[in-house]
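User: My collaborator and I are trying to settle a disagreement about how two of our proteins should look. Neither of us wants to argue from intuition anymore, so we agreed to look at predicted structures for both before our next call. Could you fold the first one, then the second, and keep them clearly separated?

Assistant: That sounds like a sensible way to settle it. I'll keep them separate. The first protein:
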Amino acid sequence: MKQTLFLLSILGILGSSSCDDGSKNTNNTNNINNVNNINNLNNLTACQALCTPLMACETITDKELVFGTTVQTCETKCEGTLEPYVKDCLISATDCAGFEECMACQTFDDIAYCDGACDLLVTDCDGGDLSQCSIDCEMYTSGAAGCFRGAGRICWQAAIDTGLCADFAGCPTIH
């Protein structure tokens, strides 16, 4: 019994002395600061990481119009005026072919997603007239209202795949 009390006393002293050690709190603070710095660095560099390889690609549709002519103008536009679905598409791309797919103007060859998109939008998400949605989707996608980029089609396809109404909210209008 005396040995048990002695052992518990020793453990209690060791435990309380480690609690008094300010270095543990400093280490925790440093760890939190390091995580915050990494998160901030990741948030700040998404467009920086995107723009250097994107600007090196020669065949991206409307590259100068959308991003400017330098990495710096690209970063500014990426952080400011670039549609979120286009930005997400470009950031997830890994090479020039991926960038080109996100930025390519779509044609009538690219309207296959419209049936699924309109079915989701109208039937599941209470979005209006199915036949009118299909007509509008085909018109927008094929370029009747200007370039409908591959990023828009990719966004809609992802919403169709999940089947969630909330997922199409970030996609461009097709109706």
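The second protein, kept apart from the first:
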Amino acid sequence: MNGMIGTIVGLFAFWMAACCFCGFKKRFVAFLAVGFTGLAANMAWMVFGLKADPLEDNLLIAQTAAAIYALSAFGIGLFLARVRRLWSESRITSKD
């Protein structure tokens, strides 16, 4: 794997973590900003880096997949926040 691909994969992982964090903190507007920024960066990389046509079928499929990944990461963040909340509510404290 060359340096450019490694950088793109690292940025994608960071983007997914940011989407998950937005879900964990229940920041819906921040998720929209992070999501659109990531999709724009993905589109720019494919159009300018890979010289793909902006309306090419494969590019649109990749953008749709990236949007689904972002929504999934956001949902996982929401789920983790709920698990954390329920975990802390179910804590048993000893009162002596």
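Some points you might bring to the call about the second protein. The CA atoms of residues 42 and 63 lie 7 Å apart. The mean pLDDT is 92.
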